Fold:
Amino acid sequence: MLRRLLLYLSQAGWARRWVTGWGTARAFARRFVAGETLDDALTATHALNRKGLLVSLDFLGESVHEAKDTELVVSTYRGLIQRIANEEAQASISLKLTHLGLDIGEDLCMANLRHILGDAKAHAIPVTIDMESSEYTERTLRIYRTLRDEYDFSNVGTVIQAYLRRTPDDMRELAAEGAHIRLCKGAYLEPETVALPIKADVDQQYVDVMDAYLKTPGSAYLCIATHDERIIQHAEALLQRDTQLIQRSEFQMLYGIRAARQDALAAAGYPVRVYVPFGDAWYPYFMRRLAERPANLWFFVKNFFGG
Ligand SMILES: Cc1cc2nc3c(=O)[nH]c(=O)nc-3n(C[C@H](O)[C@H](O)[C@H](O)COP(=O)(O)OP(=O)(O)OC[C@H]3O[C@@H](n4cnc5c(N)ncnc54)[C@H](O)[C@@H]3O)c2cc1C
Structure:
């Protein structure tokens, strides 16, 4: 119930104006966001790299409705790629299709993507297309496959959400294609017709599709994106039973969440990548993080009323 309310608020313009106008919210969001500038993003990346952690950098933003606004997004990502290459940072990038104009048109979005992916490929930097709400699932998978197969971008991957009812079928097909997939639980407000409503069922589906994906022979690569200790331990046991799988997988977690566990997994020899968001459009990302964990919300509310 609380999760659904927070996810509703993450999309509400009036709530965004109210929360972002408040300095304490900005300060609290910094727990999950590296900062607003490219310098902030690279500083966080180098600090994580020094600890043996890989990074995926996300320039925050989504739901862009003016074509000219996507120009800044493209130029920021191109600048980011240049900085990653020049500074030899161990970082990939993550992006959202609605940030690059998918709501305006698929052609514009595709043209923007090709600029970014071209630069990234020239520097051997991997790019992951984040998955947004289910309204975009079909188009995201189509665009991902077009970039991979028709434009030959071997550096592109995408995301699958374990809560979607369609996920076992998608994962089966993507494994057979040798896709580079990040598996997460899913962070959006979805109807029961589309997504499993019970958390225990989502967790079970995550484990089931992860196991099947990793057991598929071939080159498919899986990013195990979760903070769920039970799933992490299950994955570790799987990787220990078949250490070849360590070459075909990595753990991923979000910046500011379970940092000690990130370090411990890296120390145990697993590749671990931290998803590091930056930029000033932090509101929806921040609200999704509050929705995931009520304790975050209580801390936030206490500060709000405490002054
Ligand atoms: C690298 C990465 C990329 C992602 N990309 C996408 C994407 O493209 N599309 C998408 O829909 N979702 C994405 N997500 C978010 C994901 O779908 C989940 O909403 C989020 O990861 C929480 O689920 P969980 O697997 O950690 O499990 P949960 O069951 O939610 O959490 C397990 C435990 O992790 C800790 N935890 C989880 N969330 C938080 C939090 N916010 N604050 C503090 N502790 C927390 C708590 O200890 C909790 O008990 C991504 C997640 C990661 C890690």
Summary: DSSP finds 13 helices and eight strands in the chain. The first strand starts at residue 54 and ends at 59.
